[in-house]
Amino acid sequence: MSQFFMNEKSELVNEAIEGALITTPFHNLSQLDAGEGIRVVVRNDWDKRSVALISGGGSGHEPAHVGFVGKGMLTAAVCGDVFASPSVDAVLSAIINVTGEAGCLLIVKNYTGDRLNFGLAAEKARALGYRVELAIVQDDIALPENPQPRGLAGTVLIHKLAGYYAEQGASLEEVTQRARQAIADTASIGLAFATCHIPGEPQDNRVAEGESELGMGIHGEPGVTTLKTQNSREIVQNMAEKLAEKVPEGKQALLLINNLGGFSMLELGVLAREALRSPLAKRLSHLIGPATLVSSLDMKGFSLTTLLLDDERLRALQAPVEASGWQPVQQPIAPVTVEGEEIKRPPQAQPSENAAVQRVVDKVCQTLVDLESELNKLDAKVGDGDTGSTFAAGARKILQGSQQKALPFNEPARLLTLVGEQLAVVMGGSSGVLMSIMFTAAGQQLEEGKPLPQALMAGLERMKHYGGARIGDRTLIDALEPALQALVEGKGLNEAAVAAHKGAEATASMSAAKAGRSSYLNQDSLNGIKDPGAYAVERVFGALK
């Protein structure tokens, strides 16, 4: 069964609605008390003099639809169960409770359940004497031959435009006409790396690793095609070309970048960059997002929506609202850089040759590069999964210098100092700083005449001083210190490799980590797993023996 943060599945939607009512910043929402099973959120500042706007559908698309109830947007939202259309009675209850003489417009996403339930409720309301119209959003262009395009994130733009005209006092006929015209000028297409996880149901993992599904629906329904890539540039290029066909030459459009629920802010930043560098960009004048407006629970994906713009539509979209889910319209701008003063570094040592030293350096670096994936997998169990990438980044930098014959191999003190400087720049987090401290201090000791093993041990002591870790704390020191100690005592690389191996093995059975990311984990998470840094030291000395 899929994991989901909830108490009881049967109360999930009710409790989520209550949370939305509690946290709305405008204090303008109330839940309609109209009988059991009726989930309708309404504006509590509504006086029925203007055209009422009602939307809704299955839950799981938050902030849609409750997040768009408020002045300047929806009058009411009708909430069904997760991905299930609300009942006819629920829609009808919303209509009769918020509709006055000005009438009511139902804004419906083009799904069979929503069309039927909202449509029948409209017919019943008309029979009761209410003036009711429907605007059915069908902005999906992923399935070009589909006679019934689905309603996607473009629905939110229709909420906003219709809300503006209703707020201005326009008639039901005009609000409806404006909404339908905007629907005709709206196009959306979505893509996902993985489908959503429905509460209480098994996870569907039909999208293979490294692939993506173009046109996956907002309920997890299959899309039009599977792409053999997750590359951001290729994907956005594909989608942008399809959207560009919907923006005629000479026209300007707004782009809505919508998170379907599972994209991180980091990925959304990349998405925005690619979209605004795509063939579509020259036809875009304004932007909304990237943000979550119409989600699909936790779906790992996004959608892009275009809306043709004119001055009046832009004015309507920019008008202020009191709805927590709405995002401001902005004009995309080119990234700007400002000149900064670079850090002044001492002159680097002149390159020099020493084949034996170079072989050792290359062997150490290549071993760490080859271990990247293995170390990351090991670190993912006890840390944040980046130890391999961090060490490999430093190793690649040094290898590059070696291949370019840019290192002072015949001057060990200067070589260690230079390595220390470069590792601080290219290795992220604390690892780069600690390694830089060690090699910089060791270089100073060599400069003062100490033998290499003693210099490296002195560098390790400075690392321990600043980093705080000691033998037994479950870090790379558990393997590195005994290995260096063996060299200090005049033993060879074989003995040092054995000492490193024993130290790394010991970390798998240590009671708890006292330094590094592993120190935040409980003992059960660490049992039987070597520290990744200690394992890296073990493998390096193993390669040198």
TrEMBL record:
Residues 355-545 form the DhaL domain. One of its GO terms (biological process) is glycerol catabolic process. SMART domains: Dak2. Residues 8-326 form the DhaK domain. InterPro entries: DhaK_dom, DhaL_dom, DhaL_dom_sf, Dihydroxyacetone_Kinase. GO terms for molecular function: ATP binding; glycerone kinase activity. Gene3D superfamilies: 1.25.40.340, Dihydroxyacetone kinase, domain 1, Dihydroxyacetone kinase, domain 2. Pfam families: Dak1, Dak2. GO terms for cellular component: cytosol. Keywords: ATP-binding, Kinase, Nucleotide-binding, Transferase. SUPFAM superfamilies: DAK1/DegV-like, DhaL-like. This is Dihydroxyacetone kinase. The lineage of its organism: Bacteria, Pseudomonadati, Pseudomonadota, Gammaproteobacteria, Enterobacterales.
